[in-house]
Write a structure and sequence with these properties.
It is a single chain. This protein is about 30% helix and about 25% strand. It is of the alpha/beta class. The strands form six sheets. The protein has a nine-stranded mixed beta sheet. α4 (about 90-100) runs parallel beside α5 (about 110-120) and α7 crosses α8. The structure holds malonyl-coenzyme A (MLC) and adenosine monophosphate.
Length: about 500
């Protein structure tokens, strides 16, 4: 039966004996082998009583089995909901209960902490370690390696990806099969991926970049992936001569450039370096070209829209821009107050429309209505402009968001936790330039009159409440926050004041 996403990405590889995943320990997994493992997991899901449309939350380390869970969900018509392993139990509880997930897959080490959460939400709990071992694999090994694919259409939902919200509450972005397929087709074509490609895959597989951009493109092209657990520069440099392409956040590129072993020689076999998820400094672009002779191709996207723009594969890759709207994607720059389209060159809010744009936020009709216009344009919250050649430049963010090493941190969520601390009257969390992560959070704390907060004790005091990457790298105690005449905290003033705080 037809299931467009499964058929195009996985099903057609059922008898393909060529390598799909090259693991760093030398193991090789063929396409046919991968599809067979995924079918076993799909059988496990069905045997558990999961039915099409059910959500499967997965908070596990990166492994071939973890990726097979994605394929299994697609084949069984389930909605895949990947979660960052850095999330604390308290954070996971929100995602599981909000999504109504019927199954939560976690690392065996997190099982004890997550058990009561799963029970409260009525979700079944199964385990998978960073190597793929665990209760789910044990069950899969007893299942057949074929599964009757569940019929789906392009408008059926395939995945929920949670993205933080300005109010501190995360929103589940609903992505359809068509959203994922259209973007995978476009990117494969635009970036000229073929079955001859081998991608160095060092991104996490719980976000759009590593899962949908990198993995879906390779699956569609029928190429291979060198599947690395994390972007260790030494490993990247070691495997690069066997690869043809790398996709990464800017931190990948700055870290590579820091290594004297990263030379033009090591990149001689590569045809493409893609950067996205956060701004790539024009300086990094220039240094990379100087060192390797390759011009990084920068593109722009987000969880709700997949990829929107890309610098050209053949053509001028302009440093400091995110390139041109992708085929099928309409992009306009509008006045944030009136929504009117602005003239070429003016800075405003970027809005996008196309088959890539998501279906709305799960169970949040008001938030969906506020960001997704009735005519299909999604208000990204990014500030940018389009030049006369059509190149898009992102100049800032209208939304109060910090992007640290490609992870999004919404200040409100962190401020709510800091405000609870003894001696803190209120707080403001800002993004400050960071040499490795692009920017990183800093907490500005207003001290109570009778008690100053104990800054050194903060990390321990908030342990378990927030994923560690969200915890500010530094805290500054002040008497008051700068405010405008409306009483709004002037974060731009704070950002200017503390701009150099994390530079060394
Ligand atoms: C890890 N840490 C971070 C961090 N990553 N802190 C801030 N920001 C980050 N991004 C912290 C950990 O909590 C830990 O702190 C310490 O750093 C070491 O952790 P690690 O896991 O060893 O770090 P490392 O492996 O070096 O990872 C850094 C990284 C990683 C930048 C490579 O974060 C990464 O892979 N980022 C990519 C994210 C991504 O894929 N984004 C795409 C989103 S999709 P402690 O205190 O515990 O010691 C999207 C749409 C689009 O945006 O357009 O693509
Ligand atoms: P996320 O919600 O994690 O998908 O993050 C999406 C956000 O990342 C976008 O709204 C942008 O602010 C930012 N982003 C993605 N790609 C780029 C890029 N190439 N340059 C600047 N910002 C980017």
């Amino acid at each position: 039966m037809a299931n467009p996403l499964y058929d195009e990405l996985f099903g057609r590889h059922a008898t393909n004996k060529t390598p799909f995943l090259y693991l760093p320990d030398g193991h090789l997994i063929s396409y046919a082998g991968f599809v067979a493992v995924a079918a076993r997991y799909a059988n496990v899901f069905t045997a558990m009583g999961l039915s099409p449309g059910d959500r499967v939350a997965v908070q596990v380390g990166k492994s071939a089995d973890a990726l097979a869970l994605y394929a299994a969900c697609v084949q069984a018509g389930l909605i895949f909901l990947p979660l960052n392993p850095a999330y604390t139990a308290a954070e996971v509880e929100y995602f599981v209960s909000d999504s109504g997930a019927r199954l939560l897959v976690c690392d065996p080490q997190a099982q004890e902490a997550l058990k009561p959460i799963a029970e409260r939400s009525g979700a079944r709990l199964e385990t998978m370690s960073g190597t793929g071992a665990g209760s789910l694999r044990d069950a899969a090994q007893k299942q057949p390696d074929r599964f009757d694919t569940v019929a789906r259409t392009e408008s059926d939902l395939a995945a929920f990806l949670y993205t933080s919200g300005t109010t501190g509450r995360s929103k589940g972005a609903m992505l359809s099969q068509g959203n994922l397929l259209s973007n995978a087709r476009t990117l494969t074509e635009e970036w000229a991926f073929t079955s001859a490609d081998v991608l160095l895959h060092a991104l996490p597989i719980f976000h759009t970049h590593g899962l949908f951009v990198a993995t879906n493109v390779i699956l569609l092209a029928g190429g291979g992936m060198i599947f690395l657990p994390r972007p260790d520069p030494e490993q990247l440099i070691r495997f690069m001569p066997q690869a043809t392409a790398l996709m990464g956040v800017p931190t990948f590129y700055t870290r590579l450039l820091e290594s004297p072993d990263f030379t033009a020689d090591r990149t001689a076999h590569m045809r493409l370096f893609v950067s996205g998820s956060a701004p790539l400094l024009a300086e990094t672009h220039a240094r990379f070209e100087e060192r390797t002779g390759h011009r990084i191709l920068e593109r722009y996207g987000m969880t709700e829209t997949n990829m929107n723009t890309s610098n050209p594969y053949d053509g001028e890759r302009r440093a400091g821009t995110v390139g041109l709207p992708l085929p099928g994607v309409e992009l306009k720059v509008t006045d944030p107050d009136t929504g009117a389209t602005l003239p070429t060159g003016d800075v405003g809010v970027i809005e996008v429309r196309g088959p890539n744009v998501f279906q709305g936020y799960w169970n949040m009709p008001e938030k969906t209505a506020a960001e997704l216009r009735e005519d299909g344009f999604f208000i990204t919250g990014d500030l940018g402009c389009i030049d006369e050649d059509g190149y898009v430049q992102i100049v800032g963010r209208g939304k109060d968001l910090i992007i640290s090493g490609g992870y999004n941190i919404y200040p409100k969520e962190v401020e709510l936790v800091l405000d609870e601390l003894p001696g803190v009257v209120e707080s403001a969390v800002i993004g400050v330039p960071h040499p490795d992560l692009g920017e990183a959070p800093v907490g500005i704390l207003v001290a109570a009159e009778d008690k100053r907060p104990d800054v050194d004790a903060i990390p321990a005091a908030i342990e378990g409440k927030l994923a560690r990457y969200k915890i500010p790298r530094r805290f500054v105690v002040v008497d008051a926050l700068p405010r405008n005449t409306m009483g709004k905290v002037q974060k731009n003033v704070l950002r200017d004041t503390y701009a150099g705080l994390l530079s060394d």
